[in-house]
Amino acid sequence: MIERRTVFRAAMAAGSAGLLAACSGQTGGTAEVDQANVPPQAQLSAEPAADAKDVPVAQPVTVTVKDGTLTEVTLTNAEGGEVKGELNPEKTTWTSSEPLGFGRTYTYAAKATGGDDKTAELTGTFATLTPASEVRATLNPVDHAEVGVAMPISVKFAEAITDRAAAERALKVETSTEVEGAWAWLSDRQVDWRPKEYWPANTEVNVVAKLYGVHYGNGAYGRADVTTTFTVGRNQVVKVHTPEHRMRVFRDGKETANYPCSNGRDNDPELNTPNGTVIVMTREPTSIFDNERYGYTDLEKKWCCRISNHGEYIHENEENRSNIGKANTSHGCVNLLEADAKAYFDSALIGDPVEVTGSKADFPTSSDVMDWLLDWDTWKSMSAL
């Protein structure tokens, strides 16, 4: 960030502070003060300075008066449009209240009056920076969503971020009840916030990402602010202990459903339903499954809840009915009978946790949704601050 600060005076004294000119003669005497040459008492200054270049767009413009009060301040763009601003109660400082545009020229003009009733004036023009690139960011969950108690907050960037600390400092999470949580960078394009433990049910969450004008490094700047407000729903947790061939659903800690299931094959870690805590990522009434390696394409299944980007779902599989509740024969998904799959599907929210235990393999941490596969200390260590 470039910082410049120059103090402007509306008029400069032509000589010393006092302009008394003494004349001596045979009779003595003193000349009258030339009031027209005495500068106004009020002294105006502005930031950024006149003729400043590459001014950050997120930096407020300020006009300040010393020994006086402001009577008029305008800040206009090249087209003559006025930038909004506010005076402090004492009318000694005016501060712009909306962001500036990239690569634009602005002009300020101000007047102030001091105790001497003289008017001081100040004008100046400056130019804002032109970024090498403007980087778009997206925020999830979206506005007004209702999510499960394991739902992370995710900010994704259209380009790799060099100065991660600058980006992270612009992010703020507010909750209706106190929740301990932290940001972690899962890649150079994604930073997530998750609570230490599952969200308390019915928590209201407001996220503000003031990213416009943030310098990400290498001349890249944030393109726009993004915000979201969402609600955490009821506490529902799915638990699958793969050797049991059962999928249990818990609400507020109490078991509310217990479905027979068939999980990934026990004898092949490549086909296990892996250990770890994942979340419901999507709810799809029907999905098409393809895996040429294992001999199936365009296989349609109903009531599908994706639980990882590794390929695992909870879904109906009537073709595997003979093994459901008896043997693990899937390629990694949790297979349910159709009626049970529908009942679970209807109960699920995006962000519900799914806890898998008993397998020979663990979920890989290569997915962009692997927040709960990391312990809390590891998670906190991935913050840039």
TrEMBL record:
Presence of the UniProt keyword Transcription regulation in the record: no
What does the record give as its pathway?
Cell wall biogenesis; peptidoglycan biosynthesis
A single Gene Ontology CC term: extracellular region
Which ranges does the record mark as transmembrane? none
Look up keyword Nucleotide-binding and say if it applies: no
Catalytic residues, chain numbering:
315 (proton donor/acceptor), 333 (nucleophile)
Q: Which InterPro entries match?
A: Big_10, LD-transpeptidase, LD_TPept_cat_dom, Transpep_catalytic_dom
What Pfam family is a match, any one? Big_10
Domain L,D-TPase catalytic: from-to ranges: 236-357
GO process terms (BP): cell wall organization; peptidoglycan-protein cross-linking; regulation of cell shape
Superkingdom, taxonomy of origin: Bacteria
- May I ask which residue range the UniProt record assigns to the signal sequence? 1-21
This protein is called what?
L,D-transpeptidase family protein
State the Gene Ontology terms under molecular function. Answer: acyltransferase activity; peptidoglycan L,D-transpeptidase activity
Q: Which UniProt keywords apply?
A: Acyltransferase, Cell shape, Cell wall biogenesis/degradation, Peptidoglycan synthesis, Signal, Transferase
